[in-house]
Amino acid sequence: MAGLLVALTVAAVTPVPTAPAVAAATPVPLVDSYFDWIVASYDGVRNGLRRDIEHVYGDQLVVAGKTCTAASPCTVGGPQQSTAACSALQFVSVYLDQRAAYEQRSLSSVETGLIDEFASAVLAHRLTKDPNAPKIFDDAVASTPDGQIRYFTSFGNAACGEALLAAHQATGVPGYLDAATGIGEFLLRMQDPRAYYLTYGVYPFVDGTGQPTTPPGGYVDQISSWSNLYSTISTWNLTAIAFMQRLETAVAPPDNRYGQSAATARQFLTTGLQLGADWYTFDFDSPTTSQNRVVAQSSYSADCRDNRWHRKGSCTYTDGQLAGGTLGTDMIEYGLAGLYDHERQLNGASAAAAAVTTLYTTYTSIPGWHTASASDPLDCVDDTAAGAVDPYYPPDNQGATPSGDTWDYDPHLSFGGFFRLTAPTENAEAKYYDIVGFGILAELREELVPAKFTAGYQRLQQADRQDALYALLDRSLAAMFLPARDTNDLDGDSDTTEHLCKGTRGTLPVAHNGLGILKAVGYAATR
């Protein structure tokens, strides 16, 4: 990795204004501000259940007949997204539960009603189950509630399972535990889906000679409502091993199948994390019919079909080693956090720290100029800030005194951006990963590097929090925009290469960050 540089090409655009700071007489604790934002409604939809995209490119971009300007950007309402909704449900459940415990009382009917509302929104993403025709995705939560074809992911369902367990703990509603158990059964099927394809004479997994073989042990990433199974297994599915172990404790089945599933998946998925890989692509034989088949995930060259680990965008091995591609920060962070959580459940915090220390040290030792933040990731907002990022931290990339500017990513909070092992044409959302990553890694970093965790938490506490609709920008929660291209031809001029400025308004950054604080610090410590 050490010899690879990153190139970044973006266009200068009209700066996007951020909301002015508002002085507060009494500072609001960070987790309280997150809660207030998540349960607030905008256009009749809870912020915790929404995802919007704003596009700006001066007066050159027109969406649905409206000119997009810096003062009035075009907003495209995205679908409700179950992973974001589940993260919000988990945060709300944990927050209310901890707050009530701190105040030495039970949850009020209003509070349990709020949890029920979020849980109902999550469970609405499930398809109606047909007991006469069982499907592999029965009891799973779809990524979005609309569309002719819906998709069910192992990663997203693990997040929903955790949320439902948290809702059950807070409210005691048996149905939430039942729903979480259904997700556990779905994950068992995604770990070994062969039985659902035998009637077609097809096996989801074949060896190098094309003969049927057993699955490697991880959870397959995704399946559609057409029962089309996608041929990748990602390292971030280590989040599922933490959920499955927690489910094992909650329901205690006599055959230990959830715990055993977690142990098997951990053994396989940890290998990918150790190799510095994003996902494993398995080989398969499948008929050419449109449904009930195994299909390749075409994005990021995930159609390698060679039963090996890879990074996004590359099927290449050089001298027996992974070569090329993009190493995704979120894959790493979720993977490390899942591994840490699983080991801690089994053997405690010290053992969990020992299980991830070497991996954490390896990833945080990658210099900043290997990430997508190697060039300024935010010159969509202010082109005057463009330029190469200062190599502004010591070798472990998380020193106490930065020498870069406020436009650079902040490794005090997380890893920052994507690790690029080949030159990209566009940058990643570094600031988004700052705030999401802090939450994902909070417990792990509080145990491994407590001084650095404290430094990141203090940065968050000092941020301007009056607009929590966006991820961090210049140490605040004001609007984050980034350079992109009009690949979907939003303005209808058939030019899909032109630059635009894109801002994401959603739930994951706030919910994950708040969850991390509650898990690592606790509600009482924020008072």
Can you describe what's shown?
Keywords: Signal. With 527 residues, the chain is an alpha+beta fold. It has 12 helices and 19 strands. The strands form 8 sheets. The protein has a 4-stranded antiparallel beta sheet with strand order 6-3-19-18, with no helix packed on it.
Please report which band the strand proportion falls in: under 5%, 5-15%, 15-25%, 25-35%, 35-45% or over 45%.
Answer: 5-15%
Report the principal-axis shape: globular
Oligomeric category = single chain
Number of DSSP helical runs:
12
Structural class: alpha+beta
- The order of strands across the largest sheet is 6-3-19-18
Low-confidence stretches: 1-24, 375-379, 389-395, 424-429, 467-479
The pLDDT mean sits at 80
Radius of gyration: 23 Å
Helix content: 25-40%
* N/C terminus separation: 43 Å
Signal peptide: 1-23
Keywords: Signal
Characteristic key phrases:
four-stranded antiparallel beta sheet, 6-hairpin_glycosidase_sf, disordered N terminus, signal, three-stranded antiparallel beta sheet, 527 residues
Layout of strands and helices, then pairs:
Blueprint: H1 30-39, E1 41-42, E2 45-46, E3 52-56, E4 62-63, E5 66-67, E6 74-77, H2 82-102, H3 109-123, E7 151-153, H4 154-171, H5 174-191, E8 222-224, E9 229-230, E10 232-234, H6 238-251, H7 257-275, E11 279-281, E12 294-295, E13 308-310, E14 317-318, E15 321-322, E16 326-327, H8 329-347, H9 349-364, E17 419-420, H10 430-448, H11 450-461, E18 481-485, E19 499-505, H12 508-520
